[in-house]
Amino acid sequence: MLPQLHIGPSGWDYPQWRGVVYPAAGSRTPHALEFLAGHFNLLEIASTFRKPLRPEVAQMWVSKVSHNPAFQFTAVAPRRVTHDRDLDAAWIERFKSGLRPLVRAKRFGCLVFQFPWAFRFTVENREFLIRLRRAFHELPMVAEFRHASWLADEALGALIDYRLGFVNLDQPPYTGAMPPSALVTAGVAYVRLHGRDSGYWPREFRGEDGLNDYLYSPQELAAWKGRIEHIRAHAGSAFVVTANAAGGKSVINALQLMGLLAGRSSPERAAA
What we know:
- The protein is α/β, with parallel strands linked by helices.
- The chain is built from ten helices and eight strands.
- Strands 1-8-7-6-5-4-3-2 form an eight-stranded parallel beta sheet, with helices on one face.
- Helix 2 runs parallel beside helix 4.
- The radius of gyration is 18 Å and the shape is globular.
- The chain starts with a strand and ends with a helix.
């Protein structure tokens, strides 16, 4: 049997989703998690990139998704770790404590380490990645590399040796950018579709806020169908996340992907 495929958007607490994804202000509506867990079996926690999750909040989230037995959370690792390279043990323990209610409830898929484009494959960065793996050893982990140097055999070998999943990503094209792929290096396989907003990465590099504003066409999503089916067939668990949150586009594309992978739609019908 193929493992269950989990598909959903990254994040959910976006004010601009009110009246687009959620009912307009003033309308009677369930909690955002209750609402989204009725449509998806996955949500990626994006807020953990900026700050740790409080355990009591995580416990509340578990209760909000209880009506969907297949539901899973994944979480983006903190910027403090991936960008600032701060491996303070006490702070890491605080971060992990916020995820434990999800782990205990068997609602946690993996931790996503999102590295910047400047994080290229070097001996130093390989050693840092190993230190990260040891610091978070009790959690399933996947790593997102935006620079293509991580496709080197030695780099992929390190991921396999240390049971680190590879994030297959879709992103705007630029110099040295990681191309689309369908790699499985651990029991957990991951796909992240960021959108192709050419202004997003420069804004992130400058530290500016802003969501990835790009709506994938049905044909662009269909190009990922074979890759997703491949990783699903070769991994113990498979997660697909849409990270183009502006205007609720990630929700639209996640729903389209679900239909496409379930055989309920084709690019031609979806475009009609």
